[in-house]
Specification:
Helix content: over 70%
Keywords: Cell membrane, Membrane, Transmembrane, Transmembrane helix, Transport
Protein name: Sugar ABC transporter permease
CATH architecture of the largest domain: Orthogonal Bundle
Distance between the termini: 60 Å
Number of helices: 13
Membrane topology: Multi-pass membrane protein
CATH topology of the largest domain: MetI-like fold
Low-confidence stretches: none
Largest sheet: 2 strands, antiparallel
Number of strands: 2
Shape: globular
Subcellular location: Cell membrane
Strand content: under 5%
InterPro entries: ABC_transporter_permease, MetI-like, MetI-like_sf
Length: 307
Amino acid sequence: MKAVVERKYQGNKLWPYLFSLPFVIGYIVFHFYPVIYSLFLSLHDWNGIGEKTFVGLQNYTDLLTKDPLFYKSLFNTTLIMLISIPVTIILGMVMAHVTFHLAAGKRLFQTINFLPYITTPVAIGFIFSYMFDWQSGILNQLLIQLNLVTEGVYWLQEPFIARCVIALMFIWRHLGYFMAIYLAGMTAIPQDIYEAAKVDGSSGTHTLFTITLPLLKNISVFLIVTSVIGGFQLFDEPKLLYGGWAANSVGGPDNAALTVIWKFIDDTFISDNRFGYGAAIAYSLFVIIIFFSMISYRITAGKGEKE
């Protein structure tokens, strides 16, 4: 009898592993193996067809010493993030605060602001391309109608403005998501705290800066770190803004819109078919993302932990 109970117990312990086995196999085959293989590939010269030639760290050396476009793409990506992330954080927090105190129409306001986040990048690319087109763009037409300019402005042909437009695309797309996360955090704050502050005579602005924002600090850290990670993977917006998937132009005016992921895709699959070099770009970006994520975390969360 005891042996039967032990076998039944052992069988019950096996079921969780059997149920998780499909996910584990899928993760190993489609995620873990490609990551390890990419590291192996970054140490070789390979065009995807012929034999692989072992070159050691040569791909990394060429990338860091002989490829100025890599640093240009890194600069573009960082600048776009520095423009877009602080604005998105601040606007998301303000909109969440306004939504939280709305008496009516709260759900409609949330839905309208969240729609851009679930809009496909292709549609976003077409929208902004049409808005900033120098001939038929809505912005130029509006400026001409108001007699502010006499002819269309080449918005997408100015390097800095091009980066600002991409940052604006990022803000427009992610603002609703930031607002929803902050709104969830505000909803989770106990109302007793607000009532106690109100009894003590605290104004709405004073309550916001002394109670709400400090209690939302962990959410802000989460949004900043995940935004940095996602910002370094920026690709859809600049690619679709400058001609869509079928266009042969890369990087926009003076390569001002070239991001690290766009360069990775172009060098690996389009222009050069250098799979080993592309893997080196991917792993270099991986190290950069870890570095900047740690810096972002230390800046936003480190001070509070020390205190």
